[in-house]
Amino acid sequence: RNMSSAGPEGRKKMRECNGLIDSLVYYIQGAIADHEPNDKATENCVCILHNLSYQLEIELPESYAQSIYMQRRNISSDDKTPGCFGSRSRKVKEKQQDTPLPEEKSNPRGIESLWHSTLIRIYLSLIAKSTRNYTQEASLGALQNLTAGTGPMPFAVARTVVQKANGLPSIRTMLHVSHPTVKKTAVSLLRNLSRNTSLQSDIAREVLPDLVSILPESALESDIVCETTVSICYTLFNLTQSSSHNARLLLSANGLPKIITISMNDSNMFSKASRAASVLLYSLWSHTDLHSAYKK
Questions:
Q1: From CA 144, how far away is CA 147, in angstroms rounded?
Q2: Is the dihedral of CA 71, 76, 78, 84 positive or negative?
Q3: Residue 84: CB atoms within 10 Å
Q4: Distance CA 220, CA 279 (A)
């Protein structure tokens, strides 16, 4: 577990170690099957896999990168429409989100297991069944790592979490735990998931009211609450930016007074949260059909 957090070279060596990842996955599967998701060894295994999934998209060996990202390069060369961020126009991004991964192997080995649906379901199972905070946080964190990029792999993992494995109810439960870092990691995962336009209606229906409910009513009392608030605001921004329906859902959940209060926080320490809330308010105002409801 300590070695897995030793940096890129350490991660690379451990990912390449024959049988290591397979053994970790095998142990966790056994613990879940035996109804023992809370033992220390399971926590250690999940924390190792969490660390090995960090920056996975960037650090993938060339052989995997070629097979997974060949389709992505074809898309980029087909559509050179300039956007605000160079070749990463909205149209190209949307096409990338629809690009499927190559067929999943039924019996993955080694590094392939790190993004396979089997391990994604294991993480979701541990989030639901374990009461150990470090195990919950590492499972959420691994999914956060796997959904952090902009290529087809993160979007495929996001679709598996939301649509194929029905993971949102388990993640929603983590929004209401008392442990602040578990809650923060759950929100960060939702922020990544919410970037996928094809999943936004599902996410809004399942967790938008919960996100609003955990926004602070008044002053932010710590850095971790501030970071969580920033992530909530940007998640709500993603969910409401292109959807008047989702913006109305935020309104009916009494989110507007909270967001206004956060945006008016003039403390330098919490300026990131104030800025994120202001960006969200500006976006909400773009739904002109809701202006009269906002004023009320």
A1: 5
A2: positive
A3: 7
A4: 18
As a whole number of angstroms, the distance between CA 77 and CA 131 comes to 48
The 3-state DSSP class for residue 86 equals: strand
CB-count burial class (<10 Å; 0-12, 13-18, 19+) for 221 = exposed
- Taken as a whole, the chain contains a residue count of 296
C-alpha distances (whole Å) from 131 to each of 153, 186, 243, 295 are 29, 15, 36, 44
Rounded Cα distance, 282 and 285, in Å: 5
Helices (H) and strands (E) in the chain, counts: 17, 0
Q: What angle do CA 286, 287, 291 make, to 5 degrees?
A: 100
Separation in Å, CA 208 to CA 40, 121, 191, 255: 34, 23, 11, 10
Rounded to an integer, the average pLDDT of 174-201 is 96
CB atoms within 10 A of CB 230: 23
Supply the pTM of this predicted model: 0.87
Three-state DSSP state, 152: helix
Write out pLDDT tens, residues 68-105.
Answer: 655 444 444 443 333 333 333 344 444 444 445 556 66
| Residue 19 CA from chain centroid, whole number | 28
**C-alpha distances out from residue 206 to 172, 209, 259, 282, Å:** 8, 8, 20, 24
DSSP state of 164: I
Longest CA–CA span in the chain (Å) reads 63
Helix (H, G, I), strand (E, B) or coil at 257: helix
